[in-house]
Amino acid sequence: MVFSSILFLLFFLPALLLLYFCVPKRFRAARNFVLLAFSLFFYLCGGVNYMPVLLSSIAVNYLCGLLAAQGRPRAIRRIGLWSACAFGLGMLAWFKYAGFFAENLNALGAQLPVPQIVLPIGISFFTFQGLSYVIDVYRGNAACQRNPLYVALYVALFPQLVAGPIVRYSTVEREITLRSENLSEFSQGVVRFLFGLGKKMLLANVMGEIADAAFTTPPIWLSASHAWVGAVAYTFQIYFDFSAYSDMAIGLGRMFGFHFEENFNYPYISKSVGEFWRRWHISLSTWFRDYVYIPLGGSRCSRGRNIFNLAVVWLLTGFWHGASWTFVLWGGWFLLLLLGEKFLWGKALDRLPVPLRHIYTMLAVILSWVLFRAPDLPAAFSYLAAMFGLGAGARDGQAVYLLLEYWPEWIACVLAAMPVKGWLQDRLAGREALPAALAREWAPKLAALALLGLSYLKLATGSFNPFIYFQF
């Protein structure tokens, strides 16, 4: 089940809202139980075979959290911490990487059976959430939760369960038991959800059609202009697809009184690769910063050690996204760029005009998405060769056709990738006149309703449209 589906919008969500808000607010435990039951059912819809994996993760992290709690002997606390890490990372390694390592060892001469494993939906996300809970309890940054149902609610909460954002337990610790739902928060959540739905249905899916056509075209038939149009289309697709899910997750959380932190902050306006990663998938980059980079020593060490620490983080970041050499190379690409900005050309970059800095950043990002989208390294290199005119593709008018045929969507993508909404809000913020006040209050709501109508038309005539990050 996905948020952008008739089943979710017309059946699952209305049924949950009805049952949840029929329970009086003072019965917080009952409301939590309703939310947990629906969250588990939501995950169950993705496949019955995946449920034991999620339940095992919840149980292990709950028990390890009890062992890692402050006040216990240090040896017991360390057992709790390392047991959670071993189970979580071991489970992730088996389901996500066992086949990859077996295939690569066989290529070197080994004769290992290659396991055919179906990847449980969202395993990378709920594994990292569970680990962050145990680690924060061990460090004393969060209180140990004695109620197993509340740990289950934290890990399995359906808005962010299968594609993030990765929510820290400390972010929602108090809200699990002490949150207070109200009409204003609910309304803001609905608006945020509908804006995300519009991003997904009206922008991401359209750009996905253009990108899929380009990336599935044999390189011998792919012209340079068509290859660039496809790469830019995928650049928009992955941003609007993933940020749409985050918007919808944040909006759904707000409806039920939870406040998840932002996961995207207009990354395509960045003026350096470092800034891009401070704006893109913020929950993942901060997770690796707090739980890997800083414990390794961060930047408070020698230059050689700092480079090693960054290399570990970006190797893991690439591997986190998938068991493929394309993802490893994708992580290595960003490692080289970040090292270059930090130690080589960073100061020179800062002196360049802003438009040139932006072009440099977007060129680096667009090329990185080719690695991310391609099924394997030969396909990635062939596509990159086509982009720079090194392929055998003939000149054609396909790129011009795609730009003219979808010009409203291209313009909408460019505008939606910039903080236009923030600029308008800033312009209206200090004005007390009635039109400005009405615009501040009602323009987002009316825009959200329009997006709902347009998205529903797409849903009624479309097909299954999963989110890209479901595969991680």
Short description:
The protein is mainly α and 472 residues long.
Radius of gyration over alpha carbons? Answer: 23 Å
Q: Total number of β-strand segments?
A: 0
* Cα distance spanning the termini: 16 Å
Strand content: under 5%
Instruction: Quickly give the structural class.
Output: mainly alpha
Structural domain tally = 2
> Could you give the order of the helices and strands?
HHHHHHHHHHHHHHHHHHHH
Count of alpha and pi helical runs: 20
**For the residues shown, what is the average pLDDT?**
90
Low-confidence stretches: none
State the major sheet: none
Which range best describes the helical content: under 10%, 10-25%, 25-40%, 40-55%, 55-70% or over 70%? over 70%
Helix and strand layout, with pairings?
Blueprint: H1 6-22, H2 28-44, H3 51-68, H4 74-107, H5 123-139, H6 148-156, H7 169-178, H8 183-215, H9 224-255, H10 273-279, H11 282-296, H12 303-321, H13 325-343, H14 346-351, H15 354-373, H16 377-387, H17 398-405, H18 407-416, H19 420-429, H20 434-461
Helix pairs in contact: 1-2, 2-6, 3-4, 3-5, 3-6, 4-5, 8-9, 8-18, 8-20, 9-15, 9-16, 9-17, 11-12, 12-13, 13-15, 15-16
Architecture overview:
The structure is a single chain. With 472 residues, the protein is mostly helical. It folds into two domains: 25-179, no CATH class; 185-461, no CATH class. Helices cover 72% and strands 0% of the residues. It has 20 helices and no strands. It has helices at residues 6-22, 28-44, 51-68, 74-107, 123-139, 148-156, 169-178, 183-215, 224-255, 273-279, 282-296, 303-321, 325-343, 346-351, 354-373, 377-387, 398-405, 407-416, 420-429, 434-461. Helix 1 runs antiparallel to helix 2, helix 3 (51-68) runs parallel beside helix 5 and helix 4 (74-107) runs antiparallel to helix 5. The longest helix is centred in the first third of the chain and has 34 residues, at 74-107. The protein is globular. The relative contact order is 0.11. The model has no long low-confidence stretch (mean pLDDT 90).
